[in-house]
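Predicting structure from sequence has reshaped protein science. With that in mind, we have picked out one protein's residues alongside their backbone shape tokens:
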Amino acid sequence: MKTGKMILSIILSFLVMVVAQGVACLFGNMVVLMKMPIFIGNIVTGILYIIFAYLLLWLLCKKLLKGDMSDFNIPSFKIGLKWWMVALLLPLLVTAFYILFVPGSFRQNDLDLNQRLEILATGIFFTGLGAGIVEEMVFRGVMMRAIEKRFNKKIAILVPSLLFGFIHILGMGFDLLSCTLVVVAGTMVGVMFSLIASETGSIWNSAIVHAFWNIIIIGGILWIGIEMDEYSLYSYVLDTKSFLVTGGEFGIESSLIAVIGYSLVCVFVVLWERKKK
């Protein structure tokens, strides 16, 4: 693949993510305007986000890149059992570490049933499944394979991971230390997802890990941080102010504990694939 075509693929795939999200939100808002409950609108938004992104990426692969979706790590839906296990264990073990070993206190928001359903619907269908699947199709699907076709696998794993890290600081207004930590952690988790997708040849395996992480860690069921979160059912408010433990302004996703978790999964993927070969 020529360099110009590779760059165009990266730009267009990123635009697909933005456009699909915007159109999905528009339809979700229309559902709410039709007097349907807000949580139904949130569910519709998450599902349509995935559908619109998939269809637009299919067009991109067919018309511009002249290949099938499977050529870009997006084959027929299938997830290996071990990746279901990784998807569950990673966020649960990180959560357990904080509750068991980091001093803090549990808080509960005073929410009615509709508010709880809205939080759960957003966390599961949009933040979890929607963002998890679409971001994997874009970063570990089209972007990664386009770069690999132009250069090699190592560069294809690293570059989208760096981009993934940097987009998490856009417009956030963090200080330099927090930005550095977010980029490092974002790149590391990007490498983790990239290794899973690259070694298995499918974004569905990395997508389930990504989705479960989002649902459990930032999906609004249990928030772990230095302050109570009004958009979560429960909060575990940390007593410590340690930057490496709290993850700074971004939260525990950029903490040392989370980065260690990402690193362990990376080691597992590499060792598993070496053993298999």
Notes: The beta strands are 104-108, 222-225, 234-238. Residues 77 and 204 are 7 Å apart (CA to CA). DSSP finds nine helices and three strands in the chain. The mean pLDDT is 94.
